């Protein structure tokens, strides 16, 4: 089969690799009909190379049809499914508490990390990913979400990651009717977090330096601002001088406006993996402009919710400010399955209340993945969300 493989910093290729096979009775094999490039994939493309190996199959936002089913998978050949990016058993102590991203059956204990993820480096188990023509799905008796036949792929695809991640981020922020919410970063997660905030009745401010992203968010009732030195003051002025009730940081470790962090990322990229890995594991290498801006902006007694991925173990934090402002901080990988019952009716609603029809800017054949990664990373051609078609 064909698959997108990691080859080095800012280098992916489409290669012919062995087809996946069933390994456990609760596995299935799906033929992937749509698979998206996630902002988190760009961290592999740019920053997390020391934890990758050439030839790793990447991608963690797939859906498709079952072509082989293990006897205890609970699925049948022909079923149409979306595959959550987190791999969970559904029955351990953590899963019983709906903390599926901490599943004790699939935890990557050798790295000290939570549940295995598809296509996401040694840190999360080096599980072959979903930017491929076929994908083995372990623990298929719990993970895959069976969906209907009537709607196109893109109405369901984002149940794999984007929608549950955004929904969890806003739910952790604790906003509802009459509240105010700011969202830093209007990439795919930020787009949906902002729209979910509007859907839940909040007044939402969206901040991003890219005009096309601001324009997209504005179409869905979000008040948009560029990321400048005056942005926080403008939002405070609009919220009675206090700041918003909550802030979602949907940017993560590669924020604009973080020159020291960017220099550290660049330096690590030139080191051999054996030296770069411990530096990444023990140093403060994140670009923290969005996070520090979030902490500065949120009102006293408010909540900062992190949906963007951070990777540094010793990144500096303004603890005096956080303590003095009595800030609540929430974060974590999305517990995808915990939110599906909330989200499935919204994506199937003919009114499309979250605007899922208005997110994909590029749909391309799998063979075009290298150029798509470059375009997404550089934010050219109005690129906000890329979906790849492995069967084209």
Automatic annotation (TrEMBL):
Pfam families cross-referenced by the UniProt entry: ADH_N, ADH_zinc_N
Which controlled-vocabulary keywords does the entry list?
Metal-binding, Oxidoreductase, Zinc
Domain Alcohol dehydrogenase-like C-terminal, residue spans: 188-254
Return the broad EC class.
oxidoreductase
The EC number(s) attached to this protein equal: 1.1.1.-
InterPro entries found in the cross-reference section: ADH-like_C, ADH-like_N, ADH_Zn_CS, GroES-like_sf, NAD(P)-bd_dom_sf
Alcohol dehydrogenase-like N-terminal domain: which residues? Answer: 25-144
This protein's source sits in the domain of life called: Bacteria
Per the similarity annotation, which family is this? Answer: Belongs to the zinc-containing alcohol dehydrogenase family.
Q: Any idea what this protein is called?
A: Zinc-dependent alcohol dehydrogenase
- Originating organism: Corynebacterium suedekumii
């Amino acid at each position: 089969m064909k698959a997108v493989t990691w080859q080095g910093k800012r280098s992916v290729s489409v290669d012919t690799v062995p087809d996946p096979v069933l390994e456990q009775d609760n596995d299935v094999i799906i033929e992937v009909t749509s698979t998206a490039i996630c902002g988190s994939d760009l961290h592999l493309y740019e920053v997390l190379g020391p934890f990758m190996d050439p030839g790793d199959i990447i991608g963690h936002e797939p859906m498709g049809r079952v072509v082989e089913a293990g006897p205890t998978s609970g699925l049948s050949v022909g079923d149409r499914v979306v595959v959550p990016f987190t791999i969970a058993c559904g029955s351990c102590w953590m899963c019983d508490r709906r903390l599926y991203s901490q599943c004790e059956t699939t935890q990557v204990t050798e790295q000290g990390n939570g549940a295995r993820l598809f296509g996401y480096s040694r840190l999360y188990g080096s599980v072959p990913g979903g930017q491929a023509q076929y994908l083995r799905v372990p623990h298929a008796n719990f993970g895959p979400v069976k969906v209907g036949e009537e709607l196109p792929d893109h109405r369901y695809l984002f149940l794999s990651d984007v929608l549950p991640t955004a929904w969890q981020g806003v739910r952790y922020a604790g906003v509802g009717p009459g509240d105010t919410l700011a969202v830093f970063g209007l990439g795919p997660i930020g787009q949906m977090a902002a729209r979910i905030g509007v859907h839940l009745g909040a007044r939402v401010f969206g901040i991003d330096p890219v005009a096309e992203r601001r324009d997209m968010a504005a179409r869905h009732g979000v008040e948009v601002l560029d990321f400048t030195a005056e942005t926080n003051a403008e939002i405070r002025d609009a919220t009675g001088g206090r700041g918003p009730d909550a802030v979602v940081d949907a940017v993560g470790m590669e924020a604009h406006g973080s020159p020291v962090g960017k220099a550290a990322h660049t330096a690590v990229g030139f080191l051999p993996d054996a030296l770069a890995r411990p530096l990444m594991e023990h140093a403060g290498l994140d670009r923290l402009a969005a996070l520090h801006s979030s902490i500065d902006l949120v009102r006293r007694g408010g909540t900062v919710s992190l949906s963007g991925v951070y990777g540094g173990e010793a990144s500096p934090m303004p603890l005096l400010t956080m303590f003095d402002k009595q800030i609540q901080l929430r974060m974590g990988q999305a517990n995808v399955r915990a939110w599906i019952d909330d989200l499935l009716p919204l994506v199937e609603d003919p009114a499309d209340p979250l605007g899922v029809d208005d997110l994909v800017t590029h749909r391309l054949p799998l063979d075009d993945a290298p150029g798509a990664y470059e375009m997404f990373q550089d934010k050219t051609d109005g690129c906000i969300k890329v979906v790849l078609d492995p069967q084209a």
